[in-house]
Amino acid sequence: MDASKPERTTLYVKAGPDGCSLGDCPFAHSVQMVLQLKGVDYDVVPCTQETKPQWLLEEVGGKMPCVCHAGIPHTETSEILSWVDQEFPEPSLAPPENLTLSENFRLFFGLFPSLARYTKNTDPNQDSDLKLDLQIKLSSLRAVLGQVNGDFLCGEKLTLLDCELLTQLYILENATAHFKGFSLADFPVTEEVRMYYEKGSALKEFMAGAYPTDVCTWGWGQARGDS
Prior knowledge:
Helix content: 40-55%
Number of strands: 4
Shape: globular
CATH architecture of the largest domain: Up-down Bundle
Strand order of the largest sheet: 2-1-3-4
Oligomer: single chain
Number of domains: 2
């Protein structure tokens, strides 16, 4: 193995405003949640563009999050999550092979782009349309959750899908709430998406990989072009 690469399983992620602590990234958050659920012993290395190791730049173009395990780097969040689930088989986090469920889940796959567009927008003339688009995506998610018998997307069993979705909703509850004054708190306490997030975000594995709320607003403030 390249001597410059870590011997232990290591996750390389975006650094926060101080350049060395955990930065804002829902994708890294989801990877950490899965590693935590699997009980993997791993290190986290926050990086700026200037502090990325040379091998990371040369082998994967500096892409993060990146998990280096046994000298092999893994990038692209969905691929990392699938790899972790196969490499560390217990407990299985794979969603059930059910075409109906898969079809329903397509309804919320556009949630993150809608959430990002609305949160980053600084043009007041576009806000109402962007908010409506996000509300439609949340309504689609609500419909899916309303059909499920259990606390999570596939029922009582937490899956990779939950690890991706819950970490995206973390942005809504922090950055979107901060910049737009819109969050799940605007919905009744019995609303499905709100209850789903409250249950999932209380998990110790979710909290272990979460970056601070002020780092979340810092990162999205940068994306908005705020000084």
